[in-house]
Write a structure and sequence with these properties.
188 residues; alpha+beta; Immunoglobulin-like; three-stranded mixed β-sheet; binds dinuclear copper ion
Length: 188
């Protein structure tokens, strides 16, 4: 008599349990919908990324992606910016020269179609889209060489589209970058 539920009460117990679970699931769904509404309103008011655009038709004539401005440059705050341009089927410069232990900002865009930009053994992985400037910040701790393949199908030459990244000692990099020189390791 002291054990279990009296016969006939089973249905009521099951009903109560189902009701508790329904409340819990309902609360989870309400929370998720609330979160979606909150995030859409919040992000519409404050977009998480600053979208920068550029005219792919004129980027080789004027602005920051002219050929003389591509490659790596030392900034006055001690960081390094590297600018890269992708087009079928190469990257310019074809070899990026970067320092160890320095905040690096990559700025890239595409002149024709969508290309992929990734650096092996690093967290760098972005898309280069015509009309937009892709921004990525990273840091390389060790000197070395990495491959930088295009990872977005961009036409018949896609498989052959890749570049290299060479990480050198910070002091040597800064010595070469003195005076605002644009650096790369591409063979001229
Ligand atoms: Cu460029 Cu694939």
């Amino acid at each position: 008599m002291a054990h279990g539920h009296p016969a006939g009460n089973g249905a009521a117990v099951a009903h109560a349990a189902e009701y508790r679970w329904a409340l819990l699931v309902g609360a989870i769904i309400a929370f998720l919908i609330g979160m979606m509404i909150y995030m859409s309103v919040h992000w519409a008011a404050m977009p998480p990324v600053r979208t920068e655009t550029i005219d792919p038709g004129t980027l080789h004539i004027s602005g920051e992606f002219i050929e003389a401005n591509l490659g790596s440059v030392a900034e006055s705050d001690g960081s390094v910016t590297v600018r890269v341009l992708a087009n079928q089927y190469s990257f310019t410069p074809s070899c990026l020269l970067l320092p160890t232990g320095t905040p690096v900002r990559i700025r890239g865009t595409a002149a024709d179609v969508v290309h992929g930009f990734s650096i092996a053994q690093s967290n760098v992985n972005v898309m280069l889209v015509p009309g937009y400037i892709s921004n990525f910040q990273t840091k390389f701790e060790k000197p070395g060489e990495h491959v930088m393949p295009c990872h977005e199908y961009c036409g018949v030459g896609h498989a052959a589209m890749w570049a290299r990244v060479k990480i050198i000692d910070k002091a040597e990099f800064m010595r070469q970058a003195a005076g605002g020189r644009r650096l790369s390791c591409a063979e001229q």
